[in-house]
């Protein structure tokens, strides 16, 4: 089952996506968070059906949720960045207003940044509140999985100077408004092993990342457990699990206005967005 959020006929809605259509199940739930906690109940809701060609995709989370992102979680990516593998995991956060849906523009202001980069990531979406859960039980709290493109402003991320030392500016580099695509929807009960999925990114059809989630340093279960040890996870929270090697900044590649960026993950499909430069 694929569940998510969309906009149609002037309303934000909750939907079940299947075969190029989406069935509105909004009336069966008080919130999208409740849908994630009880996805099976969506099968009993017989709402209006739309073609996916006539909707606007929304991020499959809520304004009340948090996006937690693991940095340097593939060894080859840590090596290409010249960084040591973090232990324990290095996690930063994004605000919900950072997110955009499938087929929506990655919109950045050229007066703020000139160096936008892509990062293909598998993301786990929480379906049940979790606090201090062990890795062995962590996946029981995951409603399903989606795709996230951890788009980054590299000139801002690497541009912070404190005294004579350069420091990473995680906020400016990672959390600009309307720059992080996520979606198209949440795949529920479709992935048995999140550590065996092919993951790739393309820019204008050229493959730039091509890897498998088996090469994560910290597994999805490890990351869910770790974050839950710091803060309670709630339905709709997202944990992005890091990107493989091949990001643009280490290949002298930056995204330009009009570029189409696609992230493909086995079973989940494709998250596609076009870059939009705003003066």
The gist of it:
By secondary structure, the protein is mostly beta strands. It is 13% helix and 38% strand. It has helices at residues 32-37, 75-80, 135-138, 154-157, 170-174, 220-230; strands spanning 2-8, 11-18, 21-24, 49-51, 56-58, 67-71, 90-94, 99-100, 106-109, 116-117, 120-126, 142-149, 152-153, 160-162, 165-167, 180-187, 198-203, 206-212, 238-240, 260-265, 269-278.
Overall average residue pLDDT: 95
- Low-pLDDT regions: none
Task: Find the count of extended strands (DSSP E, 2+ residues).
Answer: 21
- The H/E string reads EEEHEEEHEEEEEHEEHEEHEEEHEEE
Number of helices: 6
Q: How large is the share of residues in beta strands?
A: 35-45%
Distance between the termini: 40 Å
Q: What can be said about the biggest beta sheet?
A: 12 strands, mixed
Judged by helices, strands and strand pairing, the structural class is mainly beta
Radius of gyration equals 18 Å
Helicity level: 10-25%
The outline comes out as globular
Task: Please explain how this structure is put together.
Helix content is about 15%, strand content about 40%. By secondary structure, the protein is mainly beta. The protein is globular, with a radius of gyration of 18 Å. The relative contact order is 0.22. The mean pLDDT is about 95.
């Amino acid at each position: 089952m694929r569940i998510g959020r969309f906009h149609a006929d002037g309303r934000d809605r909750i939907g079940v996506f299947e075969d190029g259509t989406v069935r509105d199940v909004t009336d069966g739930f008080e919130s999208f968070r409740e849908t994630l906690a009880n996805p099976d109940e969506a099968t009993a809701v017989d709402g209006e059906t739309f073609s996916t060609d006539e909707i606007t995709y929304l991020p499959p989370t809520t304004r009340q949720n948090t996006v937690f992102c693991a940095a340097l979680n593939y060894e080859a990516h840590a090596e290409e960045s010249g960084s040591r593998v973090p232990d324990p995991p290095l996690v930063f956060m994004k605000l919900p207003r950072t997110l955009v849906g499938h087929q929506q523009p990655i919109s950045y202001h050229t007066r703020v940044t000139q160096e936008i980069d892509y990062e293909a990531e598998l993301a786990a979406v929480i379906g049940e509140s979790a606090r201090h859960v062990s890795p062995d039980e962590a996946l029981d709290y995951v409603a399903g999985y989606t795709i996230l493109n951890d788009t980054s402003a590299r000139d801002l991320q690497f541009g912070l100077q404190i005294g004579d030392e350069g420091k990473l500016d995680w906020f400016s580099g990672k959390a600009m408004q309307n720059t992080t695509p996520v979606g198209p929807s949440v795949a529920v009960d479709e992935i048995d092993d999140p550590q065996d999925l092919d993951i790739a990114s393309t820019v204008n059809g050229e493959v730039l990342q091509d890897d498998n989630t088996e090469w994560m340093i910290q597994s999805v279960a490890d990351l869910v457990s770790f974050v839950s040890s710091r803060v309670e996870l709630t339905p709709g929270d997202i944990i992005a699990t890091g990107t493989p090697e091949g990001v643009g900044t280490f290949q002298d590649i930056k995204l330009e206005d009009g570029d189409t960026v696609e992230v493909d993950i086995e079973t989940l499909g494709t998250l596609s967005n076009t870059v939009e430069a705003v003066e």
